[in-house]
Amino acid sequence: MTTGTEQSTESPTADVVTVTIVGAGLAGCEAAFQLANRGVAVRLIEMKPQKRTPAQHSDHLAELVCSNSLRGEARTGAVGLLKEELRLAGSLVMSTALATRVPAGGALAVDRERFGAQMTAAIHAHERIELVHDEAQVIPAQRPLILATGPLTSDALAAALAGALGAEQLAYYDAIAPIVSADTIDRSVVWPQSRYDKGGADYLNCPFDEAQYAAFLQAVLEADKVAPRAFEEARYFEGCLPLEVMAERGPDTLRYGPLKPVGLTDPRTGKRPHAVLQLRPEDAAATAYNLVGCQTRMKQAEQRQVLRMIPGLEQVELMRYGSVHRNTFIDAPAALDPSMQLHALPGVYVAGQLAGVEGYVESTAAGLLCAVLLAQQLAGKAPVAPPPTTALGGILTQLSRVHPKLGYQPSNITWAHVPPLDLPGRKLKKRARYDKMAERALVDLAPWLGTIGHPNPTAAEPLQEP
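Given the sequence above, the corresponding structure tokens read:
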């Protein structure tokens, strides 16, 4: 077996290869655990306690730097299904979260200190994981290598990565627009049309009259906002400004920006509206729509209230909230192959938020997927991805999905990441439809679990519906 600094010239097998992982957050720890439990030696490099990012406050591994919640447990939510699939796949993060959970209604929330302590102990205790406390300022030469350095990847390592990939394949700030469920949009108000009728009628259009626009603008200005942390202070892109920043620049800024009505005609009046918000399909089946240009720092409760002032969205279901925050992530569709390996750097894999996912659970999933796909290759097998009908498969679908105009945008898991149900002649209510999609996912997941080995038999216990 090689050490972290020696490189074997033999054919890669789990017996002779050491995988180096940079970053011991959720994705890095999950990847290390999954590889080690499959007989692969791991050298896990973590800069704490010598150095912390501005968001970190603890020396524990897998630190939860924001909320202590891993969001909803019900499998009628996409993130609930993802947690169940992770549990079935033997996730260390999920088993630790269950062991350290605190009451949180229908959500899975944890005691942050106990969670970090138990994750750290599990990594220290594993005989195949060598934990090295050091800062990687360049891309290590060892291969295979997994980069899991998270959204606050150091400037030095980010610069090295940008140099290897090309600066255009690395982003340093993240502006995310909300996503809404298609079947909660009022089609008696909105209509399909592309601006100036160019191409197909690919967008849905929400028309404002003058009074509606003025009320919406005032609500945006008055809404409570999430205050940026000191290290996030505003590196906004002029082409992707938060909704409220544009509103602050004057009453007509939005009307001449993302809410411009030109080239659009409301079929109810035959006239151009005062302002128009466009909705762009988020997936090929158009089960969800992105609110174009509505990236925002409004708090989630405010988003629910303000965005439902948009004509046609009064009863809309928000599948993803908007946000603006500092984030380092790669252009996954361009940079990664299906096994999460960088095209430009063979033998280098990317996991977690650096790969372009959003959220604790999604980062964990990206770490598990990266490790499992790599372990299959180290065993001399072709990597087999989970079915696209599963939430784990949806993570990989998202990492391969690109918007032609906006480029790649990170996202939490939503139902738009998996194919819709094919039920000719049947229209189920939302909860029943999502439950059927979850049932399909778990049936389709079972054969894949058989191909990856099962490192933790106790993980197969099903979630309890709250």
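Confidence is low (pLDDT under 50) at residues 1-14, 456-466. Try to locate this feature in the token string yourself.
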